[in-house]
From TrEMBL:
Its EC number is 2.7.7.65. Residues 201-319 form the GGDEF domain. PROSITE patterns: GGDEF (PS50887). NCBIfam families: GGDEF. InterPro entries: Diguanylate_Cyclase (IPR050469), GAF (IPR003018), GAF-like_dom_sf (IPR029016), GGDEF_dom (IPR000160), Nucleotide_cyclase (IPR029787), Rev_trsase/Diguanyl_cyclase (IPR043128). It is an enzyme of class 2 (transferase). This is diguanylate cyclase. It catalyses: 2 GTP = 3',3'-c-di-GMP + 2 diphosphate. SUPFAM superfamilies: GAF domain-like, Nucleotide cyclase.
Amino acid sequence: MPVSAPPTVAPFSTLEQTVEAVAELISPAAPMGLWMVTKVEGEQWIPLAIRDRRYGFARGATFAWRSTPCVHMVSGEGPCVSGDVSAEPVYAGCALQQHFGFGAYLGYPIHDGRGELFGTVCGFHPEALDLDESALLPRLAAAAQVITTYLAHEELIEDTRRRAERAELESRTDPMTGVLNRRGWELAMEQEQARIARTGSSAAVVLVDLDGLKRLNDSEGHDAGDAVIRRLARVLSTQIRARDVVGRLGGDEFAMLLGGIEHNVAAQVVERIRAALSSARVESTLTWSWAGVLGSLEEALAEADALLIEHKKRHGRQA
């Protein structure tokens, strides 16, 4: 009887597609009750793909990285394959046992294209199992290598993609300040959100609102107000890296998009920006929010905006 040719296989276009495929491929390797592909994001351990047979694991849950057996596996303190974790004190006593108990564990580190730790591929089972380490280790390593290869490929083409994006943004600037206008800002947000989906990176959104602009315009004229607006834009533009952007969202409201930045680093950058504005004698209100692999930049922008409104209301800042 006639047969049809198999469909053409398309390359992965997002990190989510990649980790889901890896989870599907690795889960038959051993009868674990739970298989996961995870990401280490700061101090958090975040499951990205889950194959759950025994635990009723809640998607979207996160755990402290230091509470997991993976932190000990990555450091070499525990083996990649442990059929009976009671024989491994670092696994038997780790805090994750309080969230879901496991008697058997498998794990392997995933690195990005720069060789930095990205996350882990790992498996758990409630009871001890007879696991063949010699058969499982190559499969775990191959699963991790698939994700590393995807991340390395994305990193190689990222500079070219970013240059093309910059060229697209250059025509979308605010004539008074030279920073992005609202449409340019929206486009930058779309580009960075797509980058997060492709690479699992993170970003911060910073909002800066001038204080007392209306009062200044009324007392000293619009030229004085315009001068302060331009000074604010200059200060913000000197505080960003090549990959970051500044946009003017309204008359006295500016935004900054800090791409590929961890939460703790973003907090330090925000304080540096705050200090630079103070040194330049620009009275303003600054708030920020951060989006990791499970969040979105639109949600971060909305949170920063809500914080801005609340801060001005609480401190009686004038428009």
